[in-house]
Amino acid sequence: AGAVAEFANEGAAGSYVVSWHEGSSLKGKDKAANAVLTRDGQETVGEASVVDEILPLVASANKDVVDWVRFAQNKVGVTNFKELEAALAQLDHHLVMRSYVCGYAPSAADAALWGALRASAIFQRNLKTKPEILGDHLVRWYSHVSSLAFVERLVGQQQEASRQQQQQAPKAADQGSFDLGLSNIEYGKVVTRFPPEPSGYLHIGHAKAALLNEYIARSNGGKLIVRFDDTNPSKEKAEFEESIVEDLRLLGIKGDLITHTSDYFQIIYEYALKLINKGLAYVDDTDQETMRAERMDGIASRCREQSLDENLERFQQMKEATEFGLKCCLRAKMSVDNKNKAMRDPVIFRSNLTPHHRTGTQWKIYPTYDFCCPIVDSIEGVTHALRSMEYRDRNPQYEWFFPALDLRPVQIMDFSRMNFVYTLLSKRKLQWFVDNGFVTGWDDPRFPTVRGIRRRGMTIEALRQYVLMQGASQKNMLLEWDKIWALNKRVIDPVAPRHTALLKKELVPVTVVDGPAEPYVKEILRHKKNPELGTKHTVFSSQLFVDQTDAATFEVGEELTLMDWGNAIVKEIERTAEGVVCNAKFALHLEGDVKATKKKITWLGQSPEIHPVEALLVDYDYLITKKKLEEEDSVEDVLTPKTEFDDAAMVDANVARLPQGSVIQLERRGYYIVDKVAGQNELGLVTLIKIPDGKAASMASKHKDDGSVAKPKGTSAAAAGGSKGNSWDKGNASKSGAKKKTAATIANDATLGLPKPADVAN
Question: What's the rounded mean pLDDT across residues 405-428?
Answer without folding.
Answer: 89
